[in-house]
Amino acid sequence: MSATPAYDLLAAGNLRLHHLGHLGAMAHWDQETHMPTRGAAARGAALAELAALLHRMHTEPALRERIERAEQEPLDDLQRANLREIRREWQIANVLPESLVQARSLAASRCEHAWRAQRHANDWEGFAENFADVLRIARQEADLLSQHQSVSKYDALIDRFEPGMTGAELDRLFGDLKQWLPPLILRVREHQARDTVVAPVGPFAASRQAALCERIARLLGFDFEAGRLDVSTHPFTGGAPEDVRLTTRYREDDFQQSLMGTVHETGHGCYEQNRPRELLGQPVSQARSMAIHESQSLAFEMQIGRSFAFAHLLAPLLAEAFGSQPAFEATNVHRLLTRVRAGLIRVDADELTYPAHVILRYEIERALIEGEIEIADIPALWDEKMMALLSLDTRGNFRDGPLQDVHWPSGMFGYFPCYTLGAMYAAQWTAVLLDLRPTLHEPLALVHGDLAQVFDWLRENIWSQGSRWTTAELAIRASGETLNPAHFRAHLERRYLA
Amino acid sequence: MSATPAYDLLAAGNLRLHHLGHLGAMAHWDQETHMPTRGAAARGAALAELAALLHRMHTEPALRERIERAEQEPLDDLQRANLREIRREWQIANVLPESLVQARSLAASRCEHAWRAQRHANDWEGFAENFADVLRIARQEADLLSQHQSVSKYDALIDRFEPGMTGAELDRLFGDLKQWLPPLILRVREHQARDTVVAPVGPFAASRQAALCERIARLLGFDFEAGRLDVSTHPFTGGAPEDVRLTTRYREDDFQQSLMGTVHETGHGCYEQNRPRELLGQPVSQARSMAIHESQSLAFEMQIGRSFAFAHLLAPLLAEAFGSQPAFEATNVHRLLTRVRAGLIRVDADELTYPAHVILRYEIERALIEGEIEIADIPALWDEKMMALLSLDTRGNFRDGPLQDVHWPSGMFGYFPCYTLGAMYAAQWTAVLLDLRPTLHEPLALVHGDLAQVFDWLRENIWSQGSRWTTAELAIRASGETLNPAHFRAHLERRYLA
Known about the structure:
By secondary structure, the first copy, chain A, is mainly alpha-helical. Helices cover 63% and strands 3% of the residues of chain A.
C-alpha cells in the first residue's frame, strides 16, 4: 500500500489527461498541416468536445478533497512541486464553466479556419465579424479569472502563459525598451550602411530548403525519430513531448524565412523533447512558461542562429544546398542574418525590430481585453503604432497588419509579451554561457562542436527542470538572478555596434 | 419539450462519441502515415486511453433504462432503426470489461508497430512472440461474446464486422467456391495463354503515380475538399466521414499496385463520404457492414476498374502520366488488368485468385480463434494451403506469407471473409446495374460519362442507406434478393472466358 494514496490518484488522473491531450495535439497539428477545407467543422466540433471532456476531468468534484489529502501526505520535493502545479491547474479550471471552455474551443477553431482565407483576401471586415465571438469569450474568461485571482483582466490572461507576470511589470520592462530601442535601431542602421551585403540569388527550390532545414534542425539536436518537420500557414511547434511536430513554410524567392523559422521552432522542439521523462504526463514535467519556452526558441534563432559562429557553420551548407554563390561567403551570411530593416511581418523581423512588433500587439490586446477599445479600433491603432515605432505606413494592408498572426484568431491573448520576455531571458542565459565558455564567440566555435556544450547547459538548467521551480526560481538557479533586461541590451549593443 | 426525451439523450451521447472517435481516427491515420518511430508507445497509450473512455461512455449504467424508455417513445422509422443499432452496440459493449478493451487497444498498437519491422526482416519468431498478446486478448473477447450471444467464438468475432454472418454460412459459400474456382482459374489461364500482353516499361516516378492516382480518385467521385490520399505501409481508408483519408503505396517499377489500390480505397472513400449526412454521428448513419463496405471497394476495383470500358478511360491517362508506350493501348491495358496469375500477395491478387487468399486466411483464423491450432502452427498451414489452392511454394517466406497483412497484428479476426463476400455483393449490384443500363458494357461507356449513373445507383441504394436496414434487407431492396453468389461466378465466367 502506497504511503501517498491521494497523490497517486492525482498522478494517475494526470496521466489520463496527458494521453487524451496527445490526441487533441495531433488533431490540432493535422488541422494546421493536412486537413482538407471541408473537414474544418467536424474537427472544430471534435476538439471542442475534447476540451469539454478534459475540463470535466480537471474539475471533477472529488479533486478538491484529493488535493487536500495529498497535501498532508509524505511527498518528496518533486512530488510537492507537482502537487503545487496540480493545485494551480485545478484552481484555474474551476473558475471556468464547461460551456465556456467548449464555446472557446469552437469559436477559436471557426475563427482560425476562416482567418486563413480572410487573411489571404485582406478581408478585415469579414474577419472582424468572425473575431467578435473569440473576443467576447476571451473577455468573459478574463472577467471570471480576474475576479477569482483579484488581478486585472489582462493580467489574468497573461498568467495562463507566464504565471506571475503582470501588465504593470510589462509596462516597466517595455517602457524602458521603448526608450532605448528606437535610437539603437537608428545607430545600427547607420553603422550597417557602411557594409556591402551581397543578396543571395534565387530561386531556392522548396525541396532543397526542406532538406537544408531538416539538416540544420538535426545539427541543433532535434531528434527526428521522435518528431517531424512539416509545412503550415503559420509556423508552430505542436504534438506531444514524445512526438514533437515542428512546422515551417517555404518561399522559393527566400530561404531565410524557412531556415530561421525552423531554427526558432527547433528551440521549442528541443525543450519539448528534453522535458523530464520520468514525470511525463505530470504538470511538473511541463515547460515552465511560455516566456521560458520562447527563451529557448530565441536562444536558438537569435543567440545562436545569428551569431558569427553560426554563419561559419551555415555558409558551406548553403553552398551545398543551393550551389556556390558570392552571397554564401561566411561574413556575408552573417551580415544577411543580422541585417536590421523595419518590416511589416513579426515572424520575419530581425532581432532589433522584433520587440517593436511585440510591444504594439501587447498594447492593443491589453486595451482590447480591458474593454478600453473595440475590434473596429484595431486598424487605426495598428497604423499609428507601426508609424510611431517603425516608421512604416500600413494603412489598408490588413493582411500584413493585424491579420498576420494566428494568436488573436485562436484566442491566445496574453501570449505576445512572452516573445520579448523570452528574448531577454535568452540573452541572460547566453551571458552565463559566455562566462563559462568565452570561446563560444569565436568564428569557428560551432563548427568545432561547442554546440554540444550549449545544449548540455540548456538541458541541465532549463529543459530537465520542467516546472519544478517558479520562473523566478528557475532564473536564479540558472543565472544567479531574476529577469534582468540589461543582458538583452548589452547583447544587442555588442552584436550590432561592434 | 420533446416527445422523445430518452431518444434525444441517446442521440446526443452518440454525437459525443462520434466527435471523440474522430480524434482517435485521425491519430490512427497519423500513426500509419506520419508518426515517427519513437512516438509509438505514447500513441499506443493515448489510443488505449481513448478506447477505455469510449467504452465507459458506451456502458454508462444510465443507458439501459434510457434505451428501454426510448423504445416506448413515438419514434419514426429512421429513429427506430437508429435505436436498434444503439441497442446492438450497447449490448456488445457491455459484454466486455474496460480492462480488456484498453488492453486490446494497447496490444494491437504494440504488435502492429513491431510487425512493420518484423515483416521487413522476415522475422516470424519475433512476430509470434509479439502476436501472442493480441491473440490471447482476441480469444478472451471471442469467449465473452460467444457466451453472451450463444454462438461459436469465431462467429462472435465475425459479427463485429458482418452482423448475422456465421462460419457455417461461410463454409457453405466458400465450400462451393473451392469447387468451381480452381478449375475456372486453370481454364482462364489456358484461355489467356493465347493473348499477347505487352508489359509496361518503367520506371514510373512515384510523384507521377501520385498525380495519376489523385486524378483517377477524383474521376471516381472522391471529394478532395473533404479527404486526402497519402502513403502508408498497408493501404487503408480511415479518418472521419467529413474528412476521409485514403492511403496507397508506390513502387517505381510498377504502377498497377498503387493505381488499383487507390481505386479500391476510393470505393471505400465514396461510401464514407456519402453516408447520410443529417444523421452523422448516429449508428444508423454508419456503413452497413464490412462486406457491404468491401462490395463498394470491389465494385470500384474489380467491377469498374478491370472492365473493358475502364481500360479505355485509363489508356490515354497512362500515356499522359508516363509517356506513350505500346503497353498503354486500351486492349493491352485491359489484358494487363485482367491477367490471371497466382501470386503471394493478397492485395496485389487478380480478381480470380483473390478468393483463394481469403479462404486460406479464413480457415486459419477460425481455427486459431476456436483454439484448434496455435500461433506456431500457422506457417505450416499457410504453406500447405497456398500449395493446395494456388500451387505456390511459400516455405520460409513469412514476409510474403502470414506476415503480409495488417489484420492479424491489429486483432481484426473475422474481417477477411468480408472481402470475398464483398466481391459477391459487388457482382450482384453490377448485375442490377447492367439490367438497368445494358450499355455499361460497351468499351466507351465510362468515357462517355456512364460513371455518374453507376454512382447515382450506389448512392441511392447503398451509400445513403447507412445502417437503416439489415444487410439482408439492404440487399433485397437494392437487388431483389439476399446474397446470391451465382452472380459472382457468372461475372467471372463472362469476363474471363468470353
